[in-house]
Amino acid sequence: VDCSAPACAEELVALRGAYLDAQLRGERREALALIVERGLGRGFGVDELRRCVLAEAQREVGQLWQQNAISVAQEHLATAISQVALAHLYDRAPLVPRNGKRVVFACVEGELHEFPARLAADALDLAGFDVRYLGASVPSVHLAELLRSDGVDLLGLSVTMAFNLDALRRTIPLVRAASPTLAIAAGGDACIGQDALLKSLGVTLTAATAEQLVTGARRLLGVESS
Amino acid sequence: MTDSHVAGAPALDPALLALSREFRLELDAGGVITCADPVAERALGAAPGMRFTRLCVPGTEAKAEALMQHARRGVVRDWELGLTVSSVPATVLCSALPRGDGVQLLGVALPSQYGGAIEQLNASMDEVVRLNRDLSRQRKDLAQKHDELSRAYRDLDDSNRGVVSLHAELAERNQTLRRASDVKTRLVANVSHEFRTPLHTILGLSRLLMDGADEPLSQEQHKQVRFIRTAAEELSQLVNDLLDLSKAESGKAILRPEGFDARDFIAALRGMLRPLASRPDVALVFEDVDPALRLETDHGKLSQIARNLISNALKFTERGEVRVGLRAEGPDVVLSVEDTGVGIDEAHFALIFEEFGQIEGPLQRAQKGTGLGLPLARRLAEMLGGTLRVESTLGTGSLFTARFPRVHPEVREFSALEARSLDPARAPVLVVEDDRKTIFIYEKFLAMAGFQVVPARDTQSARRLLAELRPAAIVLDIMLDGESSWSFLSELKQDPRTADIPVLVVTVTSREQKARALGADEFWLKPVDQDRLLRKLRSLQLRGATSKVLVIDDDERARYLIKRFLDKSPYTVIEADSGQAGVAAARAVQPSVILLDFLLQDVTAFDVLDELKADPRTRHIPVVIVTSHALDDEQRERLASHAEAVLSKENLSRELAINRIRDALVKAGVGAGAQEPRGATGAPSQPVRQEVPR
How far is CA B95 from the centre of its chain? Predict the structure, then answer.
């Protein structure tokens, strides 16, 4: 098992292997114990665990399905375990003062892969942003309507599946019409290598990882790093 | 399973075949469909010539390509693909194996419920995760608020500690100041008393000289002695003012309210003060007073206020008039003294009410005053429940107004207390006490314990009340104004009707009262006033006593003066220069009155009193204590054997009063405790009014 992010410590790579194994066997308690005890317990930060263990493990789960090594059912089970682990990490994350910037986060209409959006939303939230997370497949019309009335500083849109880029194409003009000056961030696997498309849609900020998103959002909204 | 797999299997009814989820496809080496069974055509929309990946859910084509790759090399089983089945994305399990260059493929679409159920579970979990975030964030927000509050609390705690230490500092300073003030008051009292003795000698002897008692003085000598006397009188006035003020300040001055007519008051004032108006250009005018106006307050104190204000006004007025008025204003009475004198700058309004706070000026320097008149007048006005104010214009004149209630508040409250009818639910306690304030304190304490106070300000009214009601207890102040309640106490104890009523004796630890408690009939401050002495003797004579006066004093000058005072009177003075000699003389000569110095060299006045009161031959002789000295606090009560309890007014607290009274009541078997069966009587600490409902 390889870690695409070179910053991950060796011990975290090993931890990810064990975690993935527990995940695929459906051993929720074991997987959580690994994150909490071997992760937090040995002094790893919430950000590291989220990036090097949970996000990467989830990526591997997708690859395993692709290779038909696991079934859809197993994939969902693994995702569910990662969601719970993520919740535990969120709960244990240190308290950061709010920076006063409001972010709305959503998956585009039709996009059911919620986990990457959740990762990004948690990262922003724990960095001090006031995040309103809307979840999977948010209808474009409703999203635009919501943004019209809200004093939102940034909209985050997540697209995992390439075929959902169409939804992104439909959503952004609707949002722009409702809220012309709103900053929009787009991300997710489907966005990788789509810079030209994103630029043409008027996306303000793109990010490959949750950490990049946090850094970019801070710079964009003029927030001091805390 | 379809018919083609099993030999001899029945041919399927087309209606059943329409429900099949199983389909078969053949693909060529390029992944193009070469053959599709009816189910594949119907459910997937597959047709020969179509690329297989077109059946895939967008984005999952890669996995379909991978399947074909694997299948060209060998058997593949249960390969999951996302295909569009009946226009809906569905999970399809595929098995495949090579066939020529191409691939033969058998697929089963999983029932949509399974996929749907997973999606539903997913959505539910997302919902739960979202809720979890909200809760978690709320918890964190609360934790943060808690931290902020804790910090604020710590800050408050710090500043609170600061305030507390500041308070402690203030309290300490306050105590220091109070101590200083106490020392000052004591010093003033002591020094004043020390002044009095020599002053008394000077005044007395100068009067004897002027009276020509021994031999007449020459005119010049007479003038000189008069100067001596005037100077001594001024000094005496200063000392008296000082004493009055320190008394008022220490709260020891006793209020003696009485009823009197305003007109009489002003008439007496006019007679008293006319001699003071010695300047021909200044008229002392007394305004007419409403003849119906009647006051109930301390006559003496009001008179002192008026005298001070008027003499002050006369001093600082060179021409014009000093106008004195007394009128009612609503429930109040206003005494006004207006002059056309030098006036006072507004900046000095506060100063003139301070002790010795005199203003510098030619007229002020020329007019010698004690500097205590106005402060004393203001104190006295406050004691009357009122105020003293000044209005003035420099060079035009001043107006002093004392405003106070027509009926002193204590009198009003006390009348209400006296007038109220008995509450049958509360046991009455007869309180024989001349000080109204103390009675109010009892009322408060005893009401809380379920008793009601029936006040009597002297033994006479106490006797009258006892004829009408039987109190649960009697609280008796042994030193009443102008009388001692000693005999009343023994009277109570001898009368079988009242002998069993518990009596609580209350004393004050003031020496004057202690001395009186021990049998002294009078307590005079030196210098003894001649008129007062004679008046006292005359009143004793009316009682049929003989005319011998025993003076027990180790100060020869004091004995000499009294002797000379009584030179031409019908009284004979017998002198004793020590306590022992005095007691012996008293037994031997049976004087009609004894004047006893409080501080003797050999024994204390208490010892002398004890001896006198213990002996039946001398017990009846009235004793007047004479002292020029403030005395030490000393000696325990000697009253305990005569009373159920002894209370000290100084230590009178609510708990003490209630507990002592209750203990006495329980001991005597009366009060609320007696209304319950014996043994049901609660512990002494139980409030007596708490009866157990049955």
Answer: 97
